[in-house]
Amino acid sequence: MSTLAIPLVTVQHDFQSVINDVKDSLGVTRDKFWVSCYRKGERSVHGSVDVVRTSDGVEFVGNDGVTIEQRNDNNFVVGCQELGIRDALLRVPRSSIRPDAHKKITAIAVSPDTRQLSTGHEDGSITLHQIPPSPNVNDHHRTTKSIHVASISSLKFFPSSSVLLSSSSDFSLSILSADLSSSPPSSTSAPLTRVRHLKAHRRPITSSIIFGRGRTIASGSLDGSIRLWDLSQGVQTRMIGSTSY
């Protein structure tokens, strides 16, 4: 069976900032960023690209065997003739969502309606973000700091997109009311309200799953057990233990 070697292209992480500086800065009319190309079994190619301001914007001048072309605001193509790379697609983010500074992210979830994103953090806090971020309110989001006392291990949105399931290393799960649309950007009220707190595991919870419309959930833990929960009552209905439980 033949093996296909897929080439790899890497670009300086802040190359978009370099391009924008040349476009917008009065004192900078030319700058450069690096591009590297790799293919298994062949010598890697490391080059640079000059960004030069023109009357229409900027142009790119490749050096040392690499080229780059901008197709639109979010797509570029990279080439390296020596390694047989042509039009390697490079996609860049349309927008960035930044949780609170200095918070390590341990879990992430996107609501089914794709309007909200939630991040769980090492300190047990959970942040809810609007998608896409609002340009007028500096990323409309809210953070709760008192849901869990240890790192968040998993997050799941219920089918309604306005309720969130969190599990944690503190051995517990929480059901949260989470809806940014009900909290205007100017509001200081937190949209994350705990409506259920589920406790039975004896060690950190590693994963969870929501069944159907969300009346039943299951959780797995380092204690070697899988537990089923009835959310209408907020109680455990069944436990499946491993041989080591």
UniProtKB/TrEMBL annotation:
Keyword annotations from UniProtKB, A to Z: Repeat, WD repeat
Keyword Hydrolase attached: no
WD repeats: 198-239
Superkingdom, natural source: Eukaryota
One Pfam match: WD40
Protein name: WD40 repeat-like protein
Organism (species): Sistotremastrum niveocremeum HHB9708
